[in-house]
Amino acid sequence: LWNSLDADVQTSNLLITFLKYSSIVMQDTKDEHRLHSGKLCLIILTCIAEDQYANAFLHDDNMNFRVNLHRMPMRHRKKAADKNLPCRPLVCAVLDLMVEFIVTHMMKEFPMDLYVRCIQVVHKLLCYQKKCRVRLHYTWRELWSALINLLKFLMSNETVLLAKHNIFTLALMIVNLFNMFITYGDTFLPTPSSYDELYYEIIRMHQSFDNLYSMVLRLSTNAGQWKEAASKVTHALVNIRAIINHFNPKIESYAAVNHISQLSEEQVLEVVRANYDTLTLKLQDGLDQYERYSEQHKEAAFFKELVRSISTNVRRNLAFHTLSQEVLLKEFSTIS
């Protein structure tokens, strides 16, 4: 299947087919059958993301493919033409799929379990990149933007979501993804400017992080059921808040001295680069650690139900297709 890796020739393999299938199945999670299929796809991707050999293949810079994922039609974005798709290592398509899921499922019937699995897949891929020092040329800004928008969604729907889910588990995972980039980004981000862009994005969206801190602080100081979960997020935000509190006054001072009402991105980046040395961050342990996937106990009920559902569907379809055969066999059995 991999006879030609020429960038002008569309090549394929089983994993590409699976990623395309996942991008279709994971779009509509309102239907129970599709929800289960989406969950199964994310379980498979979880196992792939923590496998050393699979990761080596996914990240291989000599194995580049165009992967045309299904993207949900949205008013604020244009449909990318197939021929404009870049030829990249397959891990880029996996990350694209996760970003696509993040931005298209912020809804009332919030698929919490799928979101947790989605963030876990991203985290495991980052752990591999950090461990093996793989500098992936990927548009990380799209991921950062999607994660911040997800945090905003969790905050704006706090009351409704907390009635059904512990949203602080997900918020903690998102914040710790940013902590991974802050703490270890210099080992896996492609260029020093990518690291600058990370800081720019945190500073640009500081209001979202400030609002999150206010929310978790409020709930961690109350004696309610969310006290412990919210306080974990409070502690996880320490470096993000340090970045915001360190750079924002310097950006405001730069604007005042130069009489500029609104700084350009390049001007903000200039301030960031000039003030790295005086920034103090705390070392956070365990950011590159994760619990390996275990099917037993946690997933037993899901797979049991899945197998039951599949066998029921097969029997139903089989019965329909073999009905004429059964009639024929009965006729033969009466022949003397």
From TrEMBL:
<dbReference type="Pfam" id="PF08427">
    <property type="entry name" value="ARMH3_C"/>
</dbReference>
<protein>
    <recommendedName>
        <fullName>Armadillo-like helical domain-containing protein</fullName>
    </recommendedName>
</protein>
<dbReference type="GO" id="GO:0016020">
    <property type="term" value="C:membrane"/>
</dbReference>
<dbReference type="GO" id="GO:0005829">
    <property type="term" value="C:cytosol"/>
</dbReference>
<feature type="domain" description="Armadillo-like helical">
    <location>
        <begin position="82"/>
        <end position="318"/>
    </location>
</feature>
<keyword id="KW-1133">Transmembrane helix</keyword>
<dbReference type="InterPro" id="IPR039868">
    <property type="entry name" value="ARMD3-like"/>
</dbReference>
<dbReference type="InterPro" id="IPR013636">
    <property type="entry name" value="ARMH3_C"/>
</dbReference>
<keyword id="KW-0472">Membrane</keyword>
<keyword id="KW-0812">Transmembrane</keyword>
